[in-house]
Amino acid sequence: MKESIRSNQISKDFLMKNHVDEIVNSFAAVSELYSVVVDINGHILIEPTGPSTYLGEFHEIMLNPRYKKVYVDTVNCIVDSKQAMYSEIDDGNPDSRFAAAPIFVKGTFYAAWILYAHNKTQNKKLFKAFDHMSLTARALSEVITRLYENSIITVEEEDIKTEYEFEHSSKEIMSKALDAIYSGDRESIFRLYDRVGELLDVDYMVYYAIDTDRPGFMKLVDYWAKGGKSKEAEAAFSWDSDHYDIDIQNQIKRDCLIVDKTNMTNRLRVEVFRGNVKAIMVFPVIIKDEYQGRMIFIENTKERVWSDKEKTFGREITSMIARATAIQKRLYRGNKNIKLFTELFDLLPEYIFVRRRIDGSIVYMNPALKNKLGADMVGQNSYRLVPDMRGGLEKLSATQAIPVRMDKEVFTRYIDMLGGNYKVAEYNMRWKDLEKVEILILMPEV
Q1: Which of 90, 302, 400, 415 is the most interior residue, by most CB within 10 Å?
Q2: Strand pairing partners for 413?
Q3: pLDDT attached to residue 156
Q4: Quick check: pTM over 0.85?
């Protein structure tokens, strides 16, 4: 099967840009004949031209529907024979004649070049020019084919360049998203929305979570809008219920929902998207193998077809947001627990402090220890109070250090700053924002 011609590639603009219209019109001017080039459907590619005397009548012939059958028959004739043809035309003038030569691109009929003679004098010129017209049409077929092939190469190069830029940008965004996840900074993910929205060229991105308190409802977590956030947009995205029907909800939970120019129906546009969505991608937010919400990418401005790379990127960034959300939940629960710890420690008579494992700096000290020391050491190095007992020369003997379990050690030592022997219970755990710390509880030895 021969390769079809892309209509958006060879157009009036394409011919004018490559000066094909000047070649055709120059031939007609030298021959003093009327000329036009039309595509297979009769649409004009190179405007009618010729002597001013009967140019208006020639325009009328080309635009008059009554000549449509004549054109169809002419196209069929020259396509089958692949040769130019010379014939009479029933336009009310017994002296008029026309010639039509086919123009092929990559062996596929592309257009018909028509020369028209209105009177006997022009008719003689047309007869003499006919053979030259046929040769010129063949030459034009070769020229346009090469121009077309070069344009295809250029378009393919542009497509490759665009794909490379998309891949490069998407990888950069994903890398920054990973950094945000590792740091536990979910807000950094949301700050990437501008980059994601620009890369996908969408109007909105909306993140919904299921409402555990109200079955069947979705709650708005956050959204991004190309024109910036507004009360109107927020109101539009704050649903009273999940307005997708059960089948669509289940499809999203199983995989995703992707709708664009290729599969948008009137029912989807009106009933589901309320008439103002041109294309949409919806991916499930899965946390710990459970459906927790959805991420929606919305195109309201123009009809479009989502590319495979856009679909893949949409799914990947949704997965990143899910991971960030899971970490944020852990941080929230952890920080909530830490608050309970500190409230309890504040009430205990034992001396308690918390230090970072990475450098020994104190992040918390309870009131009992502050009063005993007569100072608050938060932010200071704790090794002056209790050295690092995790190894090296400071490690006590087996009789002094009694390991209880992996995250706890109990030992006895003299503490200079407190002026006596103390039993020390040391716990390894996570503190605020999941930071690794040691909790030390100091009890005077009786």
Answers
A1: 415
A2: 422
A3: 45
A4: no
